[in-house]
Design a protein that fits this description.
The chain has 17 helices and 13 strands. By secondary structure, it is of the alpha/beta class.
């Protein structure tokens, strides 16, 4: 782990010498609210504001829950509470820590918190409790990041992935890869220390095989990020098509609420709308885009540019075809050419408007361009659409019971950087370059791996990671 430098030495706000406090329960009213205090002055602050119901209990024993009252400097009771203290080395933060459980109203919580501040604590910054846990060596950086992911998880998949990482699945895998790389480095550095012992052909092949094994394991982790991004950020679906095809109607149907304005006038949707749904445990981001046609004004042109960008960044585009348009077949051929680089699902809408002959013609057309036949009015085909969406999404989702998935873009980039250095080191062996050069590249790769778990870190990395945490965690 990197050197533990206090905020005072670095000239920034973070310092482990401070005692910090924050409300750790969500905003709003509830039966119970909680305040966490961490730092060297935790015990003295508690002794100043907490009065146990049984006066004989002094000082409180660690990990024992005590009933009593919080009182201000004038001796006035603010609230009846329970309180627990934790000693240094055995708390969440690794420091002396106390937690107060009071009634859940925001007013009483703020009163108690302000009293804690008045006795010497300062407000905790976002993620500062978990940051202290990392700096104390209680958890590594990958597990610290998993704390935020677990809090933010909205679906079963996201929860399972975050839980696995919090329990150390990623850290363990990365640790094994690191140990293999260190073993390899020690062998190569031996060649530097004893230059008279040249690397013979057999040793060279064995070293190359070791590099291949490490590279393969890291590459396999990197390839899981596509699924991991979907787990963490959601599966992105854009609903697109020509004006008045039924995009907003479908958007409302999938949301099961009237979120988008629906009107028979083409061009009603000028800007995009995005909402989330839970589809079989997967968070799905649905975006209703502006209809694509020759724009007639500045606003409509901007809406269509947004639609193109959203489609390009989506995992799937539901392209709606209006079957009541006489030229829909010719238009579809043109449209497919313009969106050929996107993954699409064709949705043939307004089937309820077709007569028998038109439906028979459609069946022939479906053999060329398969899709889902649908009606936003009668909801015919809605079940088929949901089934197809679940099938497509499920095909990209891993089995989290026996497979580690990388969900962090930071972790993926560090692994990609490590691969770059490892491949350079391998090429240098193949070219019979000096062991010093091979060892240098390998060390750089190991440093990238170490940044994942925080064996190597700097304050900028920590600031960036913990800034996305909520206050109180």
């Amino acid at each position: 782990m990197g050197a533990k430098v206090s905020g005072k030495e670095k000239g920034i706000k973070f310092s482990n010498e401070d005692t910090i406090a924050a409300i750790i329960t969500p905003p709003g009213e509830g039966g119970i609210g909680a305040i966490r205090i961490a730092g060297p002055e935790s015990s003295s602050i508690i002794s100043s504001i907490f009065r146990p119901a049984e006066q004989s209990v002094t000082p409180p024993l660690p990990f024992h829950l005590y009933y009593g009252h919080i009182v201000d400097k004038g001796g006035n009771v603010i609230d009846e509470v329970t309180m627990v203290e934790m000693p240094e080395g055995k708390s969440y933060t690794g420091q002396k820590q106390a937690e107060i459980f009071c009634h859940g109203g925001q007013f009483v919580l703020r009163q108690i918190l302000n009293l804690v501040f008045a006795h010497g604590a300062r407000p905790a910054e976002p993620g500062e409790f978990t940051r202290r846990a990392f700096l104390a060596g209680r958890i590594d950086l990958a597990r610290a990041e998993a704390v935020a992911d677990l809090i933010a998880s909205k679906t079963e998949y996201a929860y399972a992935a975050a839980k696995n990482n919090l329990l150390g699945a990623l850290s363990e895998q990365v640790g094994q890869i690191r140990n293999q790389a260190l073993d390899l480095l020690s062998e190569i550095e031996a060649s530097v220390d004893y230059p008279e012992e040249d690397i013979d052909t057999a040793d060279k092949e064995r070293l190359l095989d070791s590099f291949d094994k490490i590279i393969r394991e890291i590459t396999e982790l990197v390839t899981t990020y596509r699924s991991g991004r979907i787990i963490k950020e959601g599966y992105k679906i854009a609903i697109a098509g020509r004006p008045n095809a039924g995009k907003s109607s479908l958007f409302n149907l999938l949301l099961n609420q009237n979120r988008a304005i629906v009107a028979p006038i083409p061009g009603t949707t000028r800007d995009y709308l995005t909402e989330w749904i839970d589809l079989e445990g997967i968070a799905v981001s649905l975006t209703d885009t502006a209809g694509l046609r020759k724009a007639t004004g500045i606003i409509e042109k901007a809406g269509q540019r947004s639609a193109q960008e959203i489609m390009a960044g989506s995992d799937l585009v539901i392209w709606i075809v209006d079957l009541t348009r006489r030229s829909w077949e010719k238009e579809l051929e043109t449209d497919l050419k313009s969106i050929s680089k996107t993954i699409i699902l064709l949705l043939y809408n307004k089937i309820d408007k077709l007569n028998k002959a038109q439906k028979e013609k459609l069946e022939v057309k479906l053999k060329e361009h398969s899709g889902v036949v649908f009606s936003c009015v009668t909801r015919a085909g809605l079940k088929d659409l949901r089934t197809e969406l679940v099938r497509r999404i499920s095909n990209q989702m891993p089995d989290l019971t026996d497979r580690l998935v990388v969900t962090s873009e930071r972790h993926k980039k560090k692994m990609e950087n490590a691969l770059k250095y490892l491949r350079k080191a391998k090429r240098n062996i193949g070219r019979d370059e000096s062991p010093e050069l091979v060892a240098f590249e390998l060390r750089q790769g190991i440093n990238e791996i170490d940044e994942i778990t925080g064996r190597v870190y700097n304050e900028e990395i920590l600031d960036r990671i913990f800034s996305r945490f909520c206050i109180g965690k």
